[in-house]
Amino acid sequence: MKVLAAMSGGVDSAVAAARAAEAGHDVVGVHMALSRSRAQTRSGSRGCCTVEDASDARRAAERIGIPYYVWDLSEDFHDLVIADFLSEYAAGRTPNPCVRCNERIKFASLLERARLLGFDAVCTGHYARIGNAGPDGSPSLHRARNLPKDQSYVLAVMGPEATARAVFPLGEDEDKQAVRDEARARGLGVSTKPDSYDICFVADGDTRGFLERNLGAAPGEIVDADGTVLGEHAGTHGFTIGQRKGLGLQRPAPDGAPRYVLDVRPDTRQVVVGPSELLSRAELTARDLVAFEPISPGRRVLAQIRAHGEALPGVVESVPGDGPAGRAESELLRVRLDAPVRGVAPGQTLVLYDGDRVLASATLERRA
């Protein structure tokens, strides 16, 4: 099989490429240059896909003995990931840029280029597993054996078609240290390289500052659930539902309890705050459903709303197309949780599981 190995410059993608080559595939390594500016070169463990990482990926490819190229996807990355990130925050939502990157760059732009060049599959260092579900042998996406490193949540949006052309050689590994030991044994210089973290295009890790620089100031009011003005803010894009720190309030709540962001309203420039008990909700509504298999109302599922959050039991109440024509219910996925969860924010990704198998991905809407 002709395989394009996406090499980020980290240990996981290097070992994945090495395993693909060792398995007898015709492997070509490619590094995605996503940054428009060399200033985004990082040191240590912050970020990914930078100039520094390109050099690390090249050395790994040379060691493995596979051809290596750098593809400039910076325009796609800016237009499909960074611009989306900014517009979502400007609209009062809380996006996950890693989900968008996997969907639109690694398994859309990259996969399409690979297909046009005659590659059969794209190989990455993600921690997830691919299996077959149903009598038709359609591809299914599963959690990795290494649950703390599992990335099925951010991969779920790729859907069954892209999954059918993906290879995840690390999905069966239960220990990250074993992957590092293998890299060392293979002579890959990235064996001790720290994991990347935070948002890769926010080089200094200051997400709020990044939003302020790009979206500008838009002062407004901080109010309680009754509309009483408690303070001011420089822009609603600096807040997300469930946030407690950085509210800048001088007046404590009457009972002394901490306040949390309950809602973000860019149209009126208001940030609504209140007690933690008002954060909880049991019904999740979501749009843009990507399903791996048909889902019917009444099905028991596990619902996850954060990349490293807990999957919570619940039941599907409706799916797009389930309600009468013209009703909102027919356009949204609705899931009723067995117990309320705190801090549900529009823009977050909702992933449904059956055990360790991904059923679907969707984007959370505002409160029902």
TrEMBL record:
<keyword id="KW-0808">Transferase</keyword>
<keyword id="KW-0963">Cytoplasm</keyword>
<keyword id="KW-0067">ATP-binding</keyword>
<feature type="active site" description="Cysteine persulfide intermediate">
    <location>
        <position position="200"/>
    </location>
</feature>
<comment type="similarity">
    <text>Belongs to the MnmA/TRMU family.</text>
</comment>
<dbReference type="InterPro" id="IPR046885">
    <property type="entry name" value="MnmA-like_C"/>
</dbReference>
<feature type="domain" description="tRNA-specific 2-thiouridylase MnmA-like C-terminal">
    <location>
        <begin position="328"/>
        <end position="363"/>
    </location>
</feature>
<dbReference type="Pfam" id="PF20258">
    <property type="entry name" value="tRNA_Me_trans_C"/>
</dbReference>
<keyword id="KW-0819">tRNA processing</keyword>
<dbReference type="GO" id="GO:0103016">
    <property type="term" value="F:tRNA-uridine 2-sulfurtransferase activity"/>
</dbReference>
<dbReference type="GO" id="GO:0005737">
    <property type="term" value="C:cytoplasm"/>
</dbReference>
<dbReference type="GO" id="GO:0000049">
    <property type="term" value="F:tRNA binding"/>
</dbReference>
<comment type="function">
    <text>Catalyzes the 2-thiolation of uridine at the wobble position (U34) of tRNA, leading to the formation of s(2)U34.</text>
</comment>
<dbReference type="InterPro" id="IPR046884">
    <property type="entry name" value="MnmA-like_central"/>
</dbReference>
<feature type="domain" description="tRNA-specific 2-thiouridylase MnmA-like central">
    <location>
        <begin position="209"/>
        <end position="274"/>
    </location>
</feature>
<dbReference type="InterPro" id="IPR004506">
    <property type="entry name" value="MnmA-like"/>
</dbReference>
<feature type="binding site">
    <location>
        <begin position="6"/>
        <end position="13"/>
    </location>
    <ligand>
        <name>ATP</name>
    </ligand>
</feature>
<keyword id="KW-1015">Disulfide bond</keyword>
<dbReference type="InterPro" id="IPR023382">
    <property type="entry name" value="MnmA-like_central_sf"/>
</dbReference>
<protein>
    <recommendedName>
        <fullName>tRNA-specific 2-thiouridylase MnmA</fullName>
        <ecNumber>2.8.1.13</ecNumber>
    </recommendedName>
</protein>
<feature type="binding site">
    <location>
        <position position="32"/>
    </location>
    <ligand>
        <name>ATP</name>
    </ligand>
</feature>
<keyword id="KW-0694">RNA-binding</keyword>
<feature type="active site" description="Nucleophile">
    <location>
        <position position="101"/>
    </location>
</feature>
<dbReference type="GO" id="GO:0002143">
    <property type="term" value="P:tRNA wobble position uridine thiolation"/>
</dbReference>
<keyword id="KW-0547">Nucleotide-binding</keyword>
<keyword id="KW-0820">tRNA-binding</keyword>
<feature type="binding site">
    <location>
        <position position="125"/>
    </location>
    <ligand>
        <name>ATP</name>
    </ligand>
</feature>
<dbReference type="GO" id="GO:0005524">
    <property type="term" value="F:ATP binding"/>
</dbReference>
<dbReference type="Pfam" id="PF20259">
    <property type="entry name" value="tRNA_Me_trans_M"/>
</dbReference>
<feature type="region of interest" description="Interaction with tRNA">
    <location>
        <begin position="149"/>
        <end position="151"/>
    </location>
</feature>
<feature type="site" description="Interaction with tRNA">
    <location>
        <position position="126"/>
    </location>
</feature>
<dbReference type="InterPro" id="IPR014729">
    <property type="entry name" value="Rossmann-like_a/b/a_fold"/>
</dbReference>
<feature type="site" description="Interaction with tRNA">
    <location>
        <position position="348"/>
    </location>
</feature>
<dbReference type="Pfam" id="PF03054">
    <property type="entry name" value="tRNA_Me_trans"/>
</dbReference>
